[in-house]
Specification:
heterodimer, A: 111 residues, mainly beta, six-stranded mixed beta sheet, four-stranded antiparallel beta sheet, 12 strands, B: 112 residues, seven-stranded mixed beta sheet, 0% helix
Chain lengths: 111, 112
């Protein structure tokens, strides 16, 4: 069965600092991988997705993620965090009709 | 603009009331989903539909019911709300290729 682990429940970074959110997956074949962001009181917005090909994926809002099959990881990165990036971030795997989500990482940004 | 809409955004209701959460999408997607999200928890699929007159229960058992009479509309109903139903409910849809899901803004339900 597919599963997703987000080891960090809560991360705090200073504005302007770099960010890396961790995601490990378990999937039988080549996985479809996603990162979603959820601002307080909002739904989920897709940041980026990986299906195949280039293992470094660019997304919206300056985010990128790197697929590493050997480590079963799909970590999300941003070189310089903005205060507006404070939100909950969810990693997910599977197809749209069979998505498995991690428990999320709450990002706090200090000024 | 193609989108997915949920109403109401917030609902506080008394125990025993019947409620319907609305979800509509303008993207022409065949597949639609309802997820339940408790605070600090991951999302769990409670219902899905692959087309008109097709509905199935998801991985998480739920006392709610759904209907799909029109492609664009996928309402969720609770016949008798209880405090245990307090949660956030997220609607989503996906198109051909079954790749990515698009989410609505959610309905935060509080049953008192």
């Amino acid at each position: 069965a597919q599963s997703v682990t987000q080891p960090d429940i809560h991360i705090t970074v200073s504005e302007g600092a770099s960010l890396e959110l961790r995601c490990n997956y378990s999937y039988g074949a080549t996985p479809y991988l996603f990162w979603y962001v959820q601002s307080p009181g909002q739904g989920l917005q897709l940041l980026l997705k990986y299906f195949s090909g280039d293992t470094l994926v660019q997304g919206i809002k300056g985010f990128e993620a790197e697929f590493k099959r050997s480590q079963s990881s799909f970590n999300l990165r941003k070189p310089s965090v903005h205060w507006s990036d404070a939100a909950e971030y969810f990693c997910a795997t599977g197809t749209a009709s069979k998505l498995t989500f991690g428990t999320g990482t709450r990002l706090q940004v200090t000024l | 603009e193609a989108d997915i809409y949920q109403t109401p955004r917030y609902l506080v209701i008394g125990t025993g009331k019947k409620i319907t959460l609305e979800c509509s999408q303008t993207m022409g997607h065949d597949k639609m989903y309802w997820y339940q999200q408790d605070p600090g928890m991951e999302l769990h699929l409670i219902h899905y539909s692959y087309g008109v007159n097709s509905t199935e229960k998801g991985d998480l058992s739920s006392e709610s019911t759904v209907s799909r009479i029109r492609t664009e509309h996928f309402p969720l109903t609770l016949e008798s709300a209880r405090p245990s139903h307090t949660s956030q409910y997220l609607c989503a849809s996906s198109g051909k290729g079954d790749t990515e899901a698009f989410f609505g803004q959610g309905t935060r339900l509080t049953v008192v």
